[in-house]
Design a protein that fits this description.
By secondary structure, the chain is of the alpha/beta class. The chain is 44% helix and 15% strand. It has two domains: 196 residues, Rossmann fold (3-Layer(aba) Sandwich); 91 residues, Alpha-Beta Complex (UDP-galactose 4-epimerase, domain 1), CATH 3.90.25. It binds 2-amino-3-ketobutyric acid.
Length: 318
Amino acid sequence: MTKRILVTGSYGQIGTELVGELRKRYGGENVIATGRKKPPEILTRDGPYYRLDILDENQLHTMLVDYDIDIIIHNASVLSAVGEKNPQLAYRTNVQGTYNVMEAVRILGLEQALVPSSIAAFGPSTPRDNTPNDVIMRPTSMYGVTKVFVELFGEYYNLRYGVNFRSLRYPGVISSEALPGGGTTDYAVEIFYEALKNKKYTCFLGPDTRLPMMYMPDCIKSTIDLMEADDSRLKHRTFNVTAFSFTPAELAEEIKKHIPEFEIAYEPDFRQKIAESWPMSIDDSVAREEWDWKPDYDLAGMVKDMLEKLSKRLGIVY
Ligand code: AKB
């Protein structure tokens, strides 16, 4: 029988493309996109979109029952930069929101809750090179603190109540459709728009700030692969996933291969400190072992595809 899936935060950078791909696989009507904002047209084209505030427990329960949901993918989250500006908002959305989702899944006996985590769950005392899946986590950003809560709370509900909780630690995600909103890795998307439109970009991170990253098609693939993974193979509930790591200077060099006039300048702001508390590269061998994770894109492939897709959409020849 086809699964029915509800996605929160569906108009976000990942949600927008995730809903589209899920609808292709599971049928438009079986994937319920939700969020607090007016949705972009793409989310209403092939299936339903409903307004949902995850802080409203009653509305959440009603929706899960009324639409006969099997799996919830809880994407609504305040990211690192916004979380630093407004830690209280990050607490409410990321901690209280996840609590509501996990409680609903427990009470209603849903089949699965997939709640993403992030490389932000690691902190300055975590080894920053090839960071293992299971390692010390003492984040110093509010976003990171809330993501450690998501992971530990989900794993506790799995142990205590048998809730089928799954989570991925997303690295920075580069996408050609929806823009990211309020993260530290957002520069890696902005740079493409500026390179095409103005041939120059001022980066809010320093040139040598290395961070783990992945291209959106791989992000969507990792999410759906984990959601569909055979439970009997999973020894973990939370997984590192990555495709490659780069610095702003290295990304700029790769873009210059296609747009030789492109210039980059650097004006690091408060996000530099956040980036420096995160891993530079992460080890995703546990995901590779337990559910056959493997990315398709490398840095060169991602840059080529991003420039092709964006230039077409923006009508800019380069
Ligand atoms: C952010 O920069 O906050 C996010 C993330 C790495 O989770 N993109």
